[in-house]
Write a structure and sequence with these properties.
Length: 189
C-alpha cells in the first residue's frame, strides 16, 4: 500500500522477495507513548477499549506497508467503522487519523495474538525531516535505494518549497516526459 505523497527511491519490491511475512511494515523510530498517542491512538481511551492490547510494541505510518490481501475482512472493521458515505470512525476519540490508528491496532492485535507473521523492515524515510542522500542523478541512472520517501502530513504550496524538491521535480519531469511520449505514440483519432 502506497500513499500518493511518496516516491520510490529504488527497487523496493526486490528487497521483500525472501520474506515469509504476510505483512511488512516500516516502524516509526521510537516507542515513545506521546509519539504513539499523537499519531495512532489516545492511549487512555484505548486502554478502556481493549485492556489486553499492548500499544507500546511499535507503530508504523500507514502510508506505506506491504500486505497480502484477504486476511482482514469487512467484519474485522465493523467495530471501528461506520459504513456510511463517507466512512467514519466509530471511536474517533480513541483512534487517530482515519486509517492510521485502526490499521495499527488491527495489525498489532493480530500479531500479538499470533494470527499473522509481521516483519519490521526500515524502508521509509520521511521527506519532511531528513529525506535521503540519494540524488536525482542516482534515480536517472537507476542507482537508487530500496526505500520510499514520504512527505506525510501538511505540505507546502509550491513544489520547490518541499524538502528534497529535486526528487519531486525529477519525478514530475519524468511523468511529463512519459505522458508526452505516450501521446506521440498513440494513433490520431
Amino acid at each position: 500500500m502506497l500513499d500518493a505523497d511518496l516516491v520510490l527511491l529504488g527497487p523496493l519490491l526486490d528487497s521483500f522477495r525472501d520474506s515469509k511475512a504476510r505483512f511488512i511494515v516500516s516502524p516509526e523510530g521510537d516507542k515513545n507513548p506521546a509519539h504513539i498517542g499523537a499519531l495512532a491512538y489516545n492511549l487512555d481511551k484505548l486502554a478502556s477499549f481493549d485492556p489486553a492490547f499492548r500499544a507500546d510494541e511499535f507503530m508504523f505510518n500507514t502510508g506505506q506497508y506491504v500486505a497480502s490481501s484477504g486476511f482482514f475482512k469487512r467484519r474485522d472493521l465493523d467495530p471501528f467503522l461506520e459504513w456510511t458515505e463517507p466512512r467514519s470512525l466509530k471511536h474517533p476519540d480513541c483512534f487517530r487519523y482515519s486509517d492510521q490508528g485502526v490499521t495499527n491496532y488491527l495489525f498489532l492485535k493480530a500479531f500479538q495474538q499470533k494470527r499473522i507473521r509481521l516483519e519490521h523492515k526500515k524502508f521509509y524515510e520521511w521527506g519532511g525531516i531528513k529525506g535521503s542522500d540519494i540524488t536525482a542523478d542516482d534515480l536517472r541512472k537507476r542507482k537508487g535505494l530500496p526505500k520510499v520517501l514520504h512527505w506525510a502530513g501538511l505540505k507546502p504550496e509550491r513544489i520547490q518549497d518541499f524538502y528534497r524538491a529535486d526528487i519531486l521535480t525529477f519525478y514530475s519531469d519524468y511523468y511529463d516526459w512519459r505522458m508526452n511520449t505516450s501521446r506521440r505514440q498513440q494513433p490520431s483519432p
